[in-house]
Amino acid sequence: MGYTARYFLAVLLPPAAVIKLGRRTATVAPIGVFFLAALVTYALAPWTPWMVLGDLFWAASAIWAVLTVRGAEEDERHEPSSTAEHHVDPERHYPAEDEAPRE
């Protein structure tokens, strides 16, 4: 599935857009919780002021899904803003760490 289709799906069905994005699948559950909260709000309080709360839940899940898809796209292209390109090597030491006085 192309990324253009994933952006469209992120607005309509946010959890489905994030499935099968590699290590980002851990975000499916929280996005799904917001999406289901929106659906439950729509089902329990249709045509009331509570619909605004459902809209906020839906917007939160859609924005989160779009940002997740965008991050996966940047990682695949190895762009400079990619989080996969910026990582910390656990074996690397700070400069002059060996000369620091120990207590």
Keywords:
103 residues, 4 helices, 57% helix, transmembrane
Report on this model:
- With 103 residues, this protein is mainly α.
- The protein has one domain (3-77).
- The protein has four helices and no strands.
- The chain has helices at residues 3-12, 14-18, 28-44, 51-77.
- The longest helix has 27 residues, at 51-77.
In short:
The protein has four helices and no strands. It is mostly helical and 103 residues long. Keywords: Membrane, Transmembrane, Transmembrane helix.
Anisotropy-based shape: elongated
Number of domains: 1
Number of beta strands: 0
Estimate the mean pLDDT confidence.
84
The SS-based structural class is mainly alpha
Radius of gyration: 20 Å
Please trace the helix and strand order, writing H or E for each element.
HHHH
Strand content: under 5%
Our count of helices gives: 4
- Through-space gap between termini: 57 Å
Helix content: 55-70%
Sheet of most strands: none
Write the layout of secondary structure elements.
Elements: H1 3-12, H2 14-18, H3 28-44, H4 51-77
Helix pairs in contact: 1-4, 3-4
Keywords: Membrane, Transmembrane, Transmembrane helix
Transmembrane segments: 26-44
Region (Disordered): 75-103
